[in-house]
Amino acid sequence: MVGKMKAVTMSMLFPVVAALSMATPAVAQPGADLPAAIWQDPVADAAHPARMEVLHIPSGGETINGIVYIAAGVGPHPTVVVCHGLPGNEKNLDLAQALRRAGWNAVTFNYRGSWGSPGTYRFGQNPQDLHAVLAYLRQSDHAAALGIDPARMAVVGHSMGGWVTAMDGGHEPGVVALAVYSAANMGALGRASHVETVKLVAENYETLAGTTPDALAGELNAHSTDYDFLGQAPALARVPFLVLTSNDGFGPHGDQLVAAIRKAGGTKIETAHVDTDHGWSDRRIDLEARIIRFLARFLN
Question: Rounded to the nearest 10 degrees, how much is the dihedral formed by the CA atoms of 236, 242, 247, 248?
């Protein structure tokens, strides 16, 4: 039904606008402490536009899948590889997009046997897959085609992906910084009873191919020593490292890693604990800002 509409004046709107302004949380407003990449798109570059390319990366006799979000502008660009957790329901693509807006290429990938990458899933293969991804990106033909600067690379890992980052990142040429958040030490988890480890894996098992919770738990139990990321502390001590923890029960894993790196002589490590869950569900902007601010000091 259409009737006569009463004219709306600014005086009538002012109370509504004022109320909305008061209701808007300050954290939603871009400020001096918030990197522009969080809230501002880059300047369009018609000659060198931002784009996405699909990757097919050889690893362990298989070809795993990945994506590179290529930054706008003339390259080569610093490049950040993002490692997802177990099984990878949270793929951190919002983080990858923010990293690209910061002027860096961002690469995500799926380990063998997960999320459509062929092969059988095994924990021990995951650091090998990260190594394969970094080696692929460093190859001169791939680096040229994708606008990658092999001398300015970083790795970011979440949860089990934090373990992957710690297990391999300290050994990689061209990797100038590492960051992990809510990292899980798979070696420490393997020291639980087999029954407890099976339960943990069974709750995080979607899409994993060619295996069972029992088999994966057995792998962790059998390799609790060599899968302990504390053993990587000497290699990690040479690399600037950001360790972020949350209220997920894995905080001690991160704290122990920091202590081990410092004991090994590492002086370029930064830490913070944030009051949020394992996936940083209500602190994604905070997460992205912390990682970008840290990486900018070494990539730019």
Answer: -40
| Separation of alpha carbons 84 and 68, rounded Å | 14
**Can you tell me the mean pLDDT for 90-119?**
98
Distance CA 137, CA 58 (A): 11
Rounded CA-CA distance 97/89 in Å is 17
Which tens digit of pLDDT belongs to each residue from 287-299?
Answer: 999 999 999 999 9
Answer whether residue 288 is part of any domain. yes
Q: What are the residues facing 68 on neighbouring strands?
A: 53, 107
- Considering the entire predicted model, what is its pTM? 0.89
Helix (H, G, I), strand (E, B) or coil at 213: helix
Tokens for 41, please give them.
Answer: 């798109």
Domain residue limits at 108: 43-186+232-299
- Tally the domains of the chain: 1
Is residue 218 included in any domain, yes or no? no
Question: Nearest 5°: CA angle at 243, between 241 and 97?
Answer: 85
The answer, yes or no, to whether the previous bond of 30 is cis (omega within 30 of 0) is no
CATH assignment of the domain containing 94: 3.40.50.1820
212-271 per-position pLDDT tens digit: 999 999 999 999 999 999 999 999 999 999 999 999 999 999 999 999 999 999 999 999
